[in-house]
Design a protein that fits this description.
Layout: E1 12-13, H1 21-34, H2 41-54, E2 58-60, E3 63-64, E4 67-69, E5 77-87, E6 97-105, H3 110-125, H4 127-135, H5 139-162
Domain PTS EIIA type-2: 5-149
Protein name: PTS EIIA type-2 domain-containing protein
GO cellular component, one term: cytoplasm
Length: 170
């Protein structure tokens, strides 16, 4: 799975207005509703909040990956939000989040759901990618960064394979 396959410009907001966790969840959920991905905003928001009650999905370093599975979701999709001022998201490092990737998935998309979480976590490990996302001004800018990230993964696999290590087998 490539992130560009589950994201598009309609699911990107480079200027999140919310100032708290609940408001952020609702603002990003609205993107899914407006894009026709989510049929019931309340049910979807409840799935995200239920997951947040287990443990905050703020992973530190100013980033969060809130995610939920719900019958209100038609297909797995990922939304991106950037908050210039930062939002308190109960992060372990106590820092506000500026970069948010929200994952919406139907209940039966467990494998793809976990793959999306892992891909986003890997992207957020890159200081270069995080800085690029923080500087992005438009949805088009964000999608370019996502395409670049997806292509870097392909190149990494080719390089490792050339060095005699088998990473992927058809």
């Amino acid at each position: 799975m490539f992130l560009n396959e589950v994201m598009d410009e309609k699911l990107i907001n480079c200027d999140i207005a919310a100032r708290d966790k609940k408001g952020l969840i609702e603002e990003m959920a609205d993107m899914f509703v407006e894009a026709g991905v989510v049929t019931n905003r309340k049910d979807f928001c409840d799935s995200i909040i239920k997951r947040e009650e287990i443990e905050s999905t703020a992973i530190g370093g100013g980033a969060a990956i809130p995610h939920g599975r719900s019958n209100a979701v038609k297909s797995l999709r990922v939304a991106f939000g950037r908050s210039k001022k930062g939002v308190n998201f109960d992060a372990m490092d106590k820092k506000p989040v500026n970069i948010i990737f929200m994952i919406a998935a139907p209940p039966d998309a467990r494998k793809e759901y976990l793959q999306a979480v892992a891909k986003i976590a890997r992207l957020l490990k890159s200081r270069v990618m995080k800085e690029a996302l923080l500087l992005s001004e438009t949805p088009k800018d964000v999608m370019k960064i996502i395409y670049d990230f997806d292509n870097v993964l392909i190149e990494e696999i080719k390089v490792v394979t050339k060095e005699g290590r088998v990473i992927h087998r058809d």
